[in-house]
């Protein structure tokens, strides 16, 4: 090809890119929110990266990050395993009060299952609960300006991921369990995820309803409460939380809680560094139900490669071995993948610490700088790079940001009236809204809907 031809091709490409950027500037989120939520599987929005989509991925990623920033994982605290903040002050305490959302309810799961390295327990004898861990929250957009910007009222479900790095992978049973959420027993998910989502503990106020029952009753309540509004249901999570996000999104759709007066409320999952959750039948059913999933991964992260190392969506004969021989370790990713590469960021250093490529703040940093395949890394929102080192050591030392810098002032200790340093008592967390049982009963009214 002649130099003049190359120059002309480059010029045309720059002109088309500029037109796309100008078009994006004219469009607003309220006009294109359904496309941003994946109604067309993000066709044409990822390469080059659409700026509105980038902002929304980061925004939902920050909802997931809030689970880490508010979780008490200190084994020396009697509140270990719970949220540090009351729901009414949750977003305020995390400097997210301007987001226009309010906590609708907190989510809990029993720690009495075989995923020991996922749960945090206190070393003290007197604790808030011996059976439960705080798992995340449900929130809803309530600010009128934010609702107008979004183009709808948004219900967000955010799941906590693991705080124990990658050890929880070794606790995966790696065999499949039928969901039994619908009528097809061949739809299966990893048994550890299933147990975490469905088990309950009658002796514990926080786990008297399973995480699944908490989700279904709350979605039912909110859909009824805002029956006159246009709604979206967005589920997000990182790591193991991403697995729970996909499982709960599928469940909501399978139970038809997103159907209202003949119309369908869109369900979208923004998943960060998530493992595979279920078999090929599970993937196919999610697609059939219209659950939209955007999986944000770092190509150097190990978690998205498990489970299903032997048989997965890349294996040519996966459908055959699932249907013909019922192979028990067949897994498939769901949705569209946004693959990022941390080596493209000039701010991040080379490291042998596997927790760094897995870190959620690092993923959000990469999203901010991603413009498309083979395009230069450039921070679009000028998102503070110091956030990367919140809970890891990933930034190059020349930026002067200490590793693992985020912690409560004085680790939460305060002086009492006697001048002694103590860990203050916290108000007791509400276990479940009093109408949980009522809305759960409404979910179960349909003969096809069983728990």
From TrEMBL:
Gene Ontology biological process terms, A to Z: lipid catabolic process
Protein name: Fungal lipase-type domain-containing protein
A Gene Ontology molecular function term of the record: phospholipase A1 activity
One GO cellular component term noted in the UniProt record for this chain: chloroplast
Species: Tetracentron sinense
Domain Fungal lipase-type residue range list: 156-309
Pfam families (UniProt xref): Lipase_3
The keyword Plastid is assigned to this record: yes
């Amino acid at each position: 090809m002649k130099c003049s031809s190359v120059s002309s091709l480059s010029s045309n490409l720059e002109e088309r890119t500029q037109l796309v950027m100008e078009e994006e500037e004219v469009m607003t989120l309220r006009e294109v929110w359904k496309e941003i939520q994946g109604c067309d599987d993000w066709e044409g929005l990822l390469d080059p990266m659409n700026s509105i989509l980038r902002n929304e991925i980061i925004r939902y990623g920050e909802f997931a990050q809030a689970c880490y920033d508010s979780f008490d994982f200190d084994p020396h605290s009697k509140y270990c395993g719970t949220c540090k903040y009351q729901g009414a002050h949750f977003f305020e305490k995390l400097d997210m009060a301007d987001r226009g959302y309010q906590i609708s309810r907190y989510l809990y799961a029993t720690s009495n299952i075989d995923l020991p390295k996922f749960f945090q327990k206190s070393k003290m004898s007197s604790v808030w609960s011996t059976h439960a861990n705080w798992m995340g929250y449900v929130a809803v957009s309530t600010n009128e300006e934010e609702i107008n910007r979004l183009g709808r009222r948004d219900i967000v479900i955010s799941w906590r991921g693991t705080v124990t790095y990658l050890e929880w992978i070794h606790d995966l049973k790696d065999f499949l369990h039928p969901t039994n959420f619908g009528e097809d027993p061949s739809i299966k998910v990893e048994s550890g995820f299933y147990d975490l989502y469905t088990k309950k503990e009658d002796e514990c106020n926080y786990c008297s309803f399973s995480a699944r029952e908490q989700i279904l009753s709350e979605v039912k309540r909110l859909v009824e409460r805002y029956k006159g509004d246009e709604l979206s249901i967005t589920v997000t999570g990182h790591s193991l939380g991403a697995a729970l996000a996909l499982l709960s999104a599928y469940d909501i759709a399978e139970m038809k809680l997103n159907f209202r007066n003949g119309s369908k409320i869109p369900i979208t999952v923004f998943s960060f560094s998530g493992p595979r959750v279920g078999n090929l039948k599970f993937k196919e059913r999610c697609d059939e139900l219209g659950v939209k999933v955007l999986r944000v991964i770092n190509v150097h992260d190990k978690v998205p490669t498990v489970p299903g190392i032997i048989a997965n969506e890349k294996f040519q004969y996966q459908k055959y071995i699932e249907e013909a021989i019922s192979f028990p370790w067949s897994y498939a990713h769901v949705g569209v993948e946004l693959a990022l590469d941390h080596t493209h960021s000039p701010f991040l250093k080379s490291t042998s610490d596997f927790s760094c490529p897995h870190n959620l703040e690092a993923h959000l940093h990469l999203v901010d700088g991603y413009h498309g395949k083979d395009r230069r890394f450039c921070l679009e929102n000028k998102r503070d790079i110091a956030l990367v080192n919140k809970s890891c050591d990933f930034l190059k030392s020349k930026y002067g940001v200490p590793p693992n810098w985020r912690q409560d002032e004085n680790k939460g200790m305060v002086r009492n009236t006697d001048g002694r340093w103590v860990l203050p008592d916290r108000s007791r967390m509400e276990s479940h809204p009093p109408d949980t049982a009522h809305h759960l009963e409404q979910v179960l009214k349909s003969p096809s809907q069983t728990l």
